[in-house]
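During the second year of the project, the team shifted from modelling isolated chains to modelling whole assemblies. The rationale, set out in the original proposal, was that interfaces cannot be judged from single-chain predictions alone. As a representative example for this report, we include one of the complexes processed in the last quarter. Its constituent sequences, exactly as entered into the pipeline, are reproduced here:
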Amino acid sequence: MRVLATRALLALALAASSACASGWVDLSPTPPAGYANLGPAEGEACSTYPLALPWHQFFAFGAGDRLLRARQAAIASVPEATSLVDVTLQERWAYWVLFSRRCAVVRGDAIR
Amino acid sequence: MRAARARATAASRLAAACSLALLSLACAGTPAPLGPREPAAFDANDRVDYSATECGAQVLIFLPVMTNDRVARAMALIEQRAGDRYIANVRLRERWTYLVFGEILCTDVVAATYGPLKTGAPPRATDTGR
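Output from the structure prediction step:
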């Protein structure tokens, strides 16, 4: 009975364990030669876990591209901007009972 | 009898509210500087890449352990190695592994570092104010 329980627990652990990775994102490319500084920019993108239980991994949304989306949102926050300099990245995290969000905030100076 | 029932109801509501408050958590990490800082003056031909990986854990989903500042820790390592070199092209990749009672979160950082401009050479990139 004990062996069966151990095997069942191991099977559960294996079934609930999985690994993922996002793509590579260049958050601070070198600026072009001769650019104009357009002022501060900020963008945020989040990954959402609607059922934040220990097995919430089956319901994760937006985790794979949130850094890219945060950078794009920061650039889009300033009209005519094409890139950023002096970039910072901050992480925010919140948990409400059965709902969890992890956000990336990209700030910097917009340039074109 | 009625008063006792009302007290019990109030107590259970208070307990439920306290439980919800305990299960509602939020925090923010340290902003990590990624460059490229201004003025952008560097020798594009003198490039060395440095990489660092920092991880944290989300225990039972709502207990973050070294999670929110992992990018700042990785950048501190890279800045320490880079010294005075100009840091740009900071590329990030996030990895996460779900376990039964939590999650391991890792961030891989690869940054390009450039040597200073040779004396007399014009800066590669400048804010022209256009």
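Helices of chain A lie at 2-16, 66-76. Residues 2-16 of chain A form the longest helix (15 residues).
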